[in-house]
Amino acid sequence: MLIDKSWIFIKNRLSEEFWNGLQGFIDYAKDFVNEEGKISCPCKHCVNGQMCPLRDVKRHIFECDFDVTYAHWVFHGEAPELPSYQNPIADNELDDEMAAVLNDIAAETNDHGIGGETTNNTTDEGYSQYKDLLSELHTELYPGCTNISSLNFLVKLMHLKVLYKWPNECMDLVLKLLKDALPDGSNLPTSHYESKKKLSKLGLGYQNIHACKYDCVLFWKSNADLQTCPICNTSRWKNERGENVPWKVLRYFPLKDRLRRLFVSRHTSKEMTWHQMGKSTDPDVMHHPVDGKEWKEFDENYPNFASEPRNVRLGLSTDGFNPFGNMSLSYSMWPVVVIVYNIPPWLCTKDPYKLLTLLIPGPSSPGKDIDVFLRPLIDELKELWSEGIVVHDGATNTRFQMWAALLMTINDFPARSSLSGWSGQGYYACPTCNVDTPSMRITSKTCYVGHRSWLPIDHVLRKNKKFNGRIEKSTPPKRKSTQDILEQLRNVPPRVPRKHEDYGGKKRKRKRRQHELN
Fold first, then answer.
1. Whether 78 contacts 32, CB under 8 Å
2. Where is the Transposase-associated domain (predicted)?
């Protein structure tokens, strides 16, 4: 059946042609409603990400217009067709790993450009980058070489660098040696910098965001052009050799681009719906977070989110480490890693699915000021929850609106204290018991007692006085509800910087004069 789609390009939504086309679409789509009488809404706002009744779909299309990028109505009964970008490379080359990678990038470029939002400029730029990569794929490593292309060779060489931790200087020497060894006219970069610049067209870059010396603010968004901290008035720069060098630089790896790449790859997209069918049949066995109480409660509270199995569930983990490996050197760098839990348990703990989103610089730990550095990630998570993003699904060759939710954090107690703001020491150190933490002071230490209150009320150990000299009759502290915790958060005072000397930070020791030295 030939479907007339010309009406979706009509700008005047009050015209007779538009209304006739809209009514024809509704008449055509009504045969494909679900059990609740709903269909996917193809308006520019919903982008087939919401199921709505026919009357609401009609109203949405009239108010927001039809999504003109929805060329094949696969959600409304039309048989799917392969997009035109699916075959930019000859069939005899599709066995090449790099050719398959470029085909995946072509799908992403068609919708968004490489690592960008949907605009004409980013799409044109992304397509131009894709054509450059495709040209590199067809370029010989050296004249007469038919075994491997210059792009494939460079990607594999960079993979070895990462795998075996070659220093950048070592990579420069290897490239120069290979350049000398290969015949004249070889298409190989001569430095690590040139290699990174060429491979940057594959996307998944990062942003450098300057931070205040005392962790007060990020010089980002509204503060991007400031030269001094708006809170402590400390200069953004430290003068080194006459150049402006920022005190601290936060590396931010955008999450949306990395989630989009998981779906656009035909190899990983099919795994992103595993959680729907991979639940344990034994209620007493938990082999994946999908079997946990929190996951199930989240699905019950947000059924619209749960109805789309491709929506992403995330976990967050962070901790400090010394990147120099020399523990005598005091330096603490904090990577913030987001873990994708849609996939099977044997994959979600593998490196490709642990997404580095932030690299918080040292030399000192951010402590309770970590929320300053988390701001870019938090803003992106809020956007993924409230608005979502349009994603190309490489497994089904369709586009859909994807949302994401952060379900959990995984940390040790000190890191949890920094992330949550709940102290990990003192009388109320237990985050579960909250203000009802059973604790007492013994000499100079705070001890946590009352563990017998979790035993059954008739347990023999409750009557044993050898623990603290008395019988245990109390019940476990009541776990705080969501409303209770939110009420506590409302009473938290505004954050103030704690590291600057004028705000309670440690002051430098006075430098001793010459006559005071031993």
1. no
2. 5-78
399 φ, ψ (degrees, to nearest 5)? -110, 145
Q: Among 154, 192, 156, 152, which residue's Cα sits nearest to residue 172?
A: 192
Q: Which of 394, 420, 446 is the last residue of a domain?
A: 420
Domain that holds residue 461: 434-503
Whether 409 maps to a domain, the answer reads yes
* Proportion of the chain above pLDDT 70, given as a percent: 83
Looking at per-residue confidence, does 193 or 502 come out higher?
A: 193
Task: Give the number of domains in the chain.
Answer: 4
Residue 442 · residue 427 · CB < 8 Å: no
Angle at 470 between CA 468 and CA 476, to 5 degrees: 85
Cα dist from 50 to 103, 158, 298, whole Å: 28, 42, 18
Q: What is the Cα–Cα distance from 189 to 195, expressed in whole angstroms?
A: 6
Q: Which of 234, 208, 239, 402 has the alpha carbon at shortest distance from 314?
A: 402
In a shared domain, residues 155 and 262: no
Boundary residue ending a domain (76, 108, 127): 76
Could you tell me if 58 and 102 lie in one domain? Answer: no
Task: Measure the CA–CA gap between 426 and 497, rounded to whole angstroms.
Answer: 22
pLDDT at 107: 57
Question: How far is 479 from 459, CA to CA, in rounded Å?
Answer: 22
Does 362 fall in a domain? yes
Taking every pair of C-alpha atoms in the chain, what is the biggest distance, in angstroms? 98
Tokens linked to 244: 């402006």
**Nearest CA to 247 among 263, 236, 232, 262?**
236
Q: What is the pLDDT of residues 99-131, one digit of tens each?
A: 666 666 655 555 554 444 444 444 445 556 656
Are both 399 and 441 inside the same structural domain?
no
Q: Is it the case that residue 49 has pLDDT exceeding 80?
A: no
Shared-domain flag, residues 449 and 350: no
Render pLDDT for 456-503 as a digit per residue (tens, 0 to 9). 999 999 999 888 888 888 888 888 888 888 888 888 877 776 677 766
Q: In whole angstroms, what is the distance from residue 17 CA to residue 330 CA?
A: 71
What span, in angstroms and rounded, lies between the C-alpha atoms of 367 and 370? Answer: 6
- Give domain status of residue 209, yes or no: no
pTM of the entire predicted model: 0.70
Using the CB atoms, write b or e for 137-156: b if 16+ within 10 Å. beeebeeebeeebbbbbbbe
- State the distance between the two ends of the chain, measured CA to CA, in whole angstroms: 97
Strand, helix or coil at 501?
Answer: helix
CA quadruple 364, 369, 374, 376: dihedral sign: negative
Side chain identity at 287, as an amino acid letter?
H
Tell me, yes or no, whether 439 and 408 share the same domain: no
